[in-house]
Amino acid sequence: MAMSTYREAVRAGLREALAGDARVFLMGEDVGRYGGAYGCSRGLLEEFGEERVRDTPLSESAFVGAGIGAAIAGMRPIVEVMTINFSLLALDQIVNNAATLRHMSGGQLRIPLVIRMATGAGRQLAAQHSHSLEGWYAHIPGIRVLAPATVADARWMLGRALEDPDPVMIFEHAALYPLEGEIGERPAAPGIERAAVRREGSDLSLITYGGSLGKSLEAAEILASEGIAIETIDLRSLRPLDEETIIGSVCRTHRAVIVDEGWRSGSLAGEISARIMESAFDELDAPVRRVCSIESPIPYAKHLEEAALPSVAGIVATAREVLR
Amino acid sequence: MANEEAINRRAEREGEIELFREMLRIRRFEEKCAELYGAGLIRGFLHLCNGEEAIAVGAMHELTNEDAIVSTYREHGHALARGLPMGGVMAELYGKANGCSGGRGGSMHLFDLTRRFYGGYAIVGGGLPIAIGLALAERMRRGRSITACFFGDGAVAEGEFHESMNLAALWGLPVLFICENNLYAMGTALHRHQARTDIAARASGYGMEAIAVDGMNISAVREAVREATAAIRRDSRPFFVEARTYRFRAHSMYDAELYRDRAEVENWKQRCPLALHSARLAITEAEMAGLESSIASEINEAISFAEAGEWEPVSAAFA
């Protein structure tokens, strides 16, 4: 099985998309000559030229909006926003235009646009480069929200996203870029909207996504040594949520802990918890619990940043409490 | 020879009367909308364009069917001048399924893909990046069409305006920016929201050609847009036209107009684009009666079309 880093997997996905469809182009800050802030597009400018690997000014609203306009006109733009905190400068275009135009035009306008960006903490970048706001985007009807947590998903999700005639946002946890893993085979249907059971177990469902998957699997491994079987679910799609997989798992394990690097108040973790309550209340042997980031801007100092984020120890401790 | 000249003059006058008719059609449509709003048949926000008709009609006349249009929430005039059937527009204002946006958009969001009318945008400045993208796609496909993007003076204060100006000039995109400067961003006068009120000069600072034109004079608008479209197609550069105009009615239907003098409004009404054009053409009473009657019938038919429309089933809207 071929191995790759997450970063190289993203690049392979981009290269395949650019090579396979003349309508596809990549646009964003420093995607060309610089090779991408995280190196995901290194070499693509040389391979595909300036028109299709297009450096933009620091104008998030204009270049995200330009992606929407080009998609309306039949292109297949991939817009890279450097990090999720910068995407707030393009919120008007994403929320007021990309998410609404198909509905508001009575179905006339379609927007086959993919917006990618880095999200998450863990690299001591402090409070304007570290937040996990993808849960906000998952609140918005009209956009699909994906979070590849594995090298294989980093490789294959983009192609599936480009097949969607409506806007898709892909959130790549920045701490994952150096991660090594198997690229795997091109996945067959069912598609990107389905969650994946990354580890099977019968005692508790650990529901997570993106940068928290690794920590959750580590926690599951520790508990396994104590004879506790944790089922670990990687959501993959934050909108729509794969309720069938989530509820199916909870009905088997009767206990659930959600791990989400976003803050707890108004979070995606809260949404998942509510859905479990709505659909599987009678199945639960214990209250659903959440492991989220501390409700503070993410600090710079390493020990403070680590303390602010979900940790393996925290997940293990919460799981033990639920199992008690 | 003399005969030929007479024929040409007559054809030219007929063409000019047709333009006048288009403006009158918009004016009467807007007046009817105000009436229907009062009767509770149109709801939501309603922004009428009385006074600004020469820009919509003059500009559309110089654009081709292949060119793309991006508009604002004050876009009934743009839509009608572009050729959207009046019935579909009226039905949209009624919220009916036979409206041009299926009843989901309303007055501020008229769309017609078949006519490359890419919508009314109700976030001030929000349509500009969309226009950039439409033009970028055209450029990448080596097409020849222009994207015409309408917006008001209020948009000049938005970051999206400046980002879009720079991007269009930087990438040499075929965008025609048409600023309908009606001197007020809702109720805030231009000199109270801009440090420098010469908008065309601001645009030229981005490295594109920019001209200011009397937006109450349809001939001047046409001339400016003709020059602009020729330059865009020739040089593959954006072009900026600031059309100086005035909104005769309130900003929307909820506006006591506390921010401007009645005398100022009356003064601008002396420069009504319809009156100016009809005086220039010496339109006769008989001609006027004919135009009024045909427009009244079209409006009545549009209302009948809207009234006959169905409501979209709830289940279909949220499928």
**SS-based structural class of chain B?**
alpha/beta
CATH class value of the largest domain in chain A: Alpha Beta
Percent of residues in helices of chain A = 25-40%
Tally of alpha and pi helices of chain A: 12
- The 3D shape of chain B can be described as globular
* Shape annotation of chain A: globular
Question: Could you characterize the architecture of this molecule?
Answer:
The complex is a heterodimer of chains A (324) and B (319). With 324 residues, chain A is of the alpha/beta class. Chain A folds into two domains: 3-182, Rossmann fold (3-Layer(aba) Sandwich); 196-323, Rossmann fold. Chain A has helices at residues 6-20, 44-48, 60-72, 91-98, 101-104, 134-137, 151-163, 213-224, 243-253, 268-280, 302-308, 312-323; strands spanning 3-5, 24-28, 53-55, 76-83, 114-119, 144-146, 168-173, 180-182, 196-199, 204-208, 230-234, 237-239, 256-263, 289-293. In chain A, β10, α8 (213-224) and β11 (230-234) form a beta-alpha-beta unit. In chain A, α1 (6-20) packs parallel to α7 (151-163). The longest helix of chain A is centred in the N-terminal third of the chain and has 15 residues, at 6-20. The termini of chain A are far apart. Chain B is an alpha/beta fold and 319 residues long. The longest helix of chain B has 37 residues, at 2-38. Chain B is globular, with a radius of gyration of 20 Å. Classes of the chains: A alpha/beta (324), B alpha/beta (319).
